[in-house]
Amino acid sequence: MNQQIFQTPIAYLKGVGASRADVLQKELGISNFADLLRHFPFRYIDRTRFYKVKELNPDLPNVQLIVRLRSKEILGEKHTKRLVAQVYDDTGVMELAWFQGVRWVEKILIPGKAYIIFGKPGSFNGKTQMAHPEIERYSPEALKERGNMTLQPAYSSTEKLKAFQLDSKGIQHLVANLLEQCAKDIQENLPETLLKQFKLMGRKEAYWNIHFPADAATLAAATNRLKFEELFFIQFKLLKNKALRTLKFKGNVFGSVGEYFNTFYRDKLPFALTNAQKRVLKEIRQDTQRGVQMNRLLQGDVGSGKTVVALMSMLLAIDNGFQTCIMAPTEILATQHYASIKSLIDDDFLEVALLTGSTSAKARRVLHQKLESGELKILIGTHALIEDKVQFKNLGFVVIDEQHRFGVEQRARLWRKNAVPPHVLVMTATPIPRTLAMTLYGDLDISIIDELPAGRKPIETLHYYETQRLRMFGFMKEEIAKGRQIYVVYPLIKESETLDLKNLTDGIEVMAREFPLPQYRICIVHGKMKAAEKQMEMERFVSGHAHIMVATTVIEVGVNVPNASVMIIENAERFGLSQLHQLRGRVGRGAEQSYCILMSSHKLSHDGKIRLDTMVKTNNGFEISEIDLQLRGPGNIEGTQQSGVLDLKLANLATDQQLLMICRKCVEDIFAEDPRLELPQHAILNQATQLPDGGLSWDKIS
Ligand code: ADP
Ligand code: MG
Known about the structure:
By secondary structure, the protein is α/β, with parallel strands linked by helices. The protein contains 24 helices and 23 strands. Helix 15 links the parallel strand 15 and strand 16. It binds adenosine-5'-diphosphate and magnesium ion.
């Protein structure tokens, strides 16, 4: 068995050589045998059978048919020029369309003749259609020549590669050479028991069949096996890290609940905790008594009350003689945390300090000193906190807000601030889907606050079309008459900035006309303003002086005005779901019934419609995040872009949720039974992660 073979530079593969190796590396990042082995086909061409017109539907992949030409017609002019042909077989009629190469195709189409067409079925105006099919004249002889066709792999390629005869076919040849030479060296990397339990195809067979499937069922089995492997080893790596950490690091023990916690709970807490908050506190309490470092993710919707849970956990730490800190990704958020913690406890009770980029050198010196002496117990700040100059006497508990904006490396730097690493509580600003959490934060334990404080009135969300604008103005006036304030938000997106700015200015003008002085006062806030000016305008709204704030998404985070009860989002169809949800979260903070009005044009894309319908239908951030994931795919969910964990080759966290759950459970069971991986049946897993063809880029996984 020769595992090193997969590390062989691709130049040494039969049929490659130096110059082809060079383009393969540059264009597709293929530099050795393993890379090519994992350059999977992006689709398969089903040449195994001929379909009938009646069977076609838009869910089918590329298919082939034998049809006869009835008529052809060139429609439109210049840019809209297209060729439309009617074809038929004994089951029905369909339409073919070409928007390019019109004249060339037109020449080869002869009414009355039969053709083999190959392409993706679609539908247009309720009729079956195929755009840009491959087409060739049909004859019984031509068919025989094609021989035994099966599922043909199609590989992604580029213009540059094609110049080296490395189109899809060319790459297919290389893969065939590779498999012939070293398929025998592909080693199994999953335990026998799992293969049996989940009826997984062997690894070698799976690699063969994903490239050259015998038939559709075998292809499905091969793909499933390799997806399983992909998801399994991500979880394996995450939970292995977790297990190692548990074995290696001791954790501070918060043995007792003391004065600070109890006094706060008895005298300061202005409301009763929700059951969800109590449950999470209990989880944290248990974690911090075990003598093992806690690493916990706290998820909860906007307004679910994460802050007070964080604070009470910190009080627990302080009761046991430790210092604590909260780290937020931006100065605005840090300042906001500072304000909300200060509103819960006063200086007589405990001193709270803020440290950001804008903290003066003089104030810093005082802070540093108080931290080193252990006098200061609660520090809130930005990444300024992790600078080496900031030294604690005994840091025991760290809260990280929105950690996906921090790297894992930064998390580690916080740990190192203490001999025994502090317990870590990570909070996300908005819920993320379960499968994403399991992958991005798979090495953390997860706590969820799935309940809003009692008495909170759910925000009512309405979707208005442009034609209902007058109704919207009427509604705004009613609310202002009741003493409420209103946000009006416009999109400002980099790619269309000039147009958006014009929209914003037009919008402001319309608003100013509809809500004239002196009866109404409007303030304006957008990212292009100077900081001081922005601050002043914000202040006018916060103080209640202005009735309406017209803004771009700068207000997404950082404004808290309980009296604002209406959020109007213009061009709502252009916002992503999580952004809409975030914006909506700006209202509903006071005692009054709050509203969110989504304004859109009548022209809505399919996804745009789903987004707005979802917003109207639910206030539940978890539900919304799941739909967002389905619509946009895991790579586009906010905050996940930089994460290499999501560079999956085969599996998809949106569509393979069930498989992920299964893999997670398998890995959990393995570590529960055998945390040090000492059992003989697990030896294969330890080896697997060291194989050069291990199937994963380990370095990308945190
Ligand atoms: P988030 O989870 O978005 O960070 P916060 O912690 O900022 O939510 O809480 C939102 C608001 O709800 C705050 O004003 C907070 O004081 C209040 N709050 C938190 N918990 C409760 C509760 N159990 N009952 C009533 N109000 C609560
Ligand atoms: Mg918060």
